[in-house]
Prior knowledge:
By secondary structure, the chain is mainly β. It has helices at 5-16, 55-59, 140-144, 362-367; strands spanning 24-29, 32-47, 75-78, 82-90, 95-104, 116-126, 130-136, 172-176, 183-192, 207-218, 221-228, 252-263, 268-280, 296-307, 312-322, 330-340, 345-353, 370-378. A 16-stranded antiparallel beta barrel has the order 2-4-5-6-7-8-9-10-11-12-13-14-15-16-17-18. Mean pLDDT is 82; it is low at 244-249.
Amino acid sequence: MKKTLLATAIAGAMVYGATAAQAATVYDQDGTQVDVYGRINMMLNTGGTDREPTAKEIADNDYAAGDVVKQSGTEINNNGSRFGFRARNQVSSDLSVFANAEFRFDADTRANQTLQTRSTFVGLDSDSMGRVTVGNFLSVYYTAVGSVFDVPQYQTGPILGGYGAVNSQADSIAYSTPNLEGFQAHVQAQHASGNDAAAGARDNSSALSWIGAVNYTWQDLYLGLAYAQNRNLGEDNDRGADYQFNAGRNDQEDLWGATASYQFTPEFAARVKYETWTDNADYIQGDNDPSVDSRIDNVWGLGATFNYGMGNIYGDYFRVRYVNDDLSSSNQWVLGATYRFSTPMFAYFEVYDADFSSDQTFEDFNDDLLYTVGLRYDF
Length: 379
């Protein structure tokens, strides 16, 4: 069966989370292999739009109500630099066990900083029985649906639920079936504990949020469908259970997403997606939210990638509809290109518009654009 590059990348992401183009094997003995991998990714941003201060920033007297926080200037930034360790042991011809530990750091500054844990998990993988993963990892929703549009290096446009696809990156267990003639199914549960909360004040029982996905690959076609429950727990209701990661406001439940991609030629591929929340609770302003309810209700996406030999040219367009009826739907787009100097290193240039309107003047249109240029080295 002919497999596309996209399908291969998605399959790798489901096994290991984020994979690296380069990896150095530091141990390989008695059936156990340990790899070290990572990336240094630096970028320069300029342009874009400014923003309102958040409620927390106003409460902390960082800004006053009505202030505008400048974000449209030029700045050198880290862009997801990381390193990790990946281990695998072949138990038998059909069974292997694996582990992964990946960390993030700020590469653009010299400062005292604590490494951030990005993904840490262990599991078992069998060609005949499937795969079990336990720990902190990218959700099966993201790997089946969201990752298809995770093409740009910086601004990817809206990926609903974020890269973890709704709080999946902690206390999770997932099962994936074997590849059945191109078809795979995945189910994942995230545990929310009622411990460390005042006993009796609310319901302190534990809770589970479920995530499910199916994907199918046939020759150059890839299809993905996924669901994330995202139960509303914590301070905003009568439940005392809480998630260990991204445990802030969870006032949107039941996320559905579908995507399709097709490799028309070895150089050209196109993709489409639709994501929607089916249950939008009343808006509850969190500490890191501005005063306006800007939650997304649903999004359509259309994109394409062309490989010109030394790199890729890619573009995505998104039609975004908001929960707040007072906000008009927005048109977002990103256009970018990469140039590969060598196997591990490439440069990239991207332009992003958060809300394009056909009645904008050229000056207004240019003022809103966010430009990014960067260098990334994988090891």
